[in-house]
Amino acid sequence: MLAVTISRIAGYLDAIEKLAPLVAEHRTAFDRERRLPDVVFRALAEAGLFRLWLPAAIGGVPELSPVEFMSVVEAASALDGSIGWIVANGGGMSRVAGYLPEPVAREWFADPEAFIVSATGAIGSAQPVPGGYRVSGRWPFGSGSSHATRFMGLAAVTDGNGAVSAPICCYVSREQVTVHDTWHVSGLRGTASNDFEAHDIFVPADHTHDFIAPRATQSGIIYRLPGLSIFPWSITGTTLGIASGALAAFTEQTKQGKARFGVRLQDRELVASAIGRAEAMIGAARAYLARGMTDLLAALDDDAERQKRARARLRIACAYAAESSASVVQMLTTEAGASAIFESNSLERAGRDINAAVKHIAMNPQSYVIAGRLALGLDPGGLRF
Fold first, then answer.
1. Is residue 215 part of a domain?
2. pLDDT for residue 1
3. Cα 154–97–60 angle (5° rounding)?
4. Which domain covers residue 130, as residue numbers?
5. Mean pLDDT, rounded, for 132-157
6. Are residues 262 and 341 in the same domain?
7. CATH number for the domain that contains residue 338
8. What percent of the chain has pLDDT over 70?
9. How far apart are CA 218 and CA 206, in angstroms?
10. The pLDDT of residue 3 is above 60
11. Residue 55 · residue 220 · CB < 8 Å
12. Are 248 and 78 in contact (CB under 8 A)?
């Protein structure tokens, strides 16, 4: 099992804890503005939470391991679902510096508030031209779009004869895209996960890399992980954090709750059982995720078949963590009763946020089918596996 080195992430965890009053002060604006207020985003950037996987060679401190990253994301998500989602996406996308020419990466991340939006829900087009590509497309779910310094959209390379290749990741500046106000949703409202669009813009070749198997320009093990594995991993910790935050809130509310029909809430066995069960469910999901990543790292230098099975196990670990987290939040809001429907209760927000988070394709239950087909000796059948 991969161990979390607490000393390496202690500063991040402390910074997240200290952000609690600021987040509480501005939380109502998350829903009203459908984005994080500038002061909150800036505080996250100053805490280094958007540079968690930045290569050490270009200033990444301390270039977290996958499980350390998950622990930080979980803590941020326990504070608030939208906060955790933005940290997971921004911190996760700092990893792209390990696939770009070092001078390009240094230039982009010289900005202390550098934040790269990634959207893989659609594929645009990239026409080869001297020095790069002419790129067009519209991409949904651009989390953090209101504060992005760069946007990444997938584009299929087409040649003059109409042949289409596997997609590449194209990174463009904020000035090159139009952000569409599409994020009118129930949960994770503060993430500003809007559509963005580009029309016939020039993207230099060194601002692109392969989507499925990018060539690493840095030596860290994180940059050797398959992109289709590390991407779902990077955001799944959000669901654990939302569930952990809901459990903490429910426990505290129970301690302070008034007696019902002469019995204090904290003396009811069903309530105590829900708390214990929630703790076990979150812990089991967390451990299974960590084991899945441990197995994948161990398989990186092995044959393709073993690595394929390890990737499948990691994907079902992501799906299981999402399902378990959603079940925990549902169980706790049910036990909380009518109080959990009020916006003033953090359980209400947790319910909305978890329902939005688990809809992401990274945690899609289709992953169970892929793993099952492999176990049966069949082709995985997943387009993005």
1. no
2. 42
3. 145
4. 116-210
5. 97
6. yes
7. 1.20.140.10
8. 95
9. 15
10. no
11. yes
12. yes
Q: 130: which 2 tokens?
A: 């001297």
Please name the residue ranges forming H helices in the chain: 6-18, 20-33, 38-46, 66-79, 81-93, 102-109, 227-256, 269-299, 304-336, 346-357, 366-375
Query: What's the Cα-to-Cα distance from 152 to each of 32, 76, 107, 303, rounded to whole Å?
Result: 27, 24, 16, 31
| Overall number of domains in the chain | 3
Residue 332 token pair: 């706790």
141 SS3 class: strand
Domain boundary among 175, 210, 245: 210
Same domain, 145 and 75: no
* Gap between the Cα atoms of 166 and 240, Å rounded: 33
Mean pLDDT across the stretch 208-221? 92
| Residue-wise pLDDT tens digits, 10-67 | 999 999 999 999 999 999 999 999 999 999 999 999 999 999 999 999 988 888 999 9
For the cut 60, the answer to whether the pLDDT of residue 166 exceeds it is yes
DSSP 216: P
Helix 38-46 to helix 20-33 angle (10° resolution) is 140
CA distance 84 to 235: 9
244 plus 365 within the same structural domain: yes
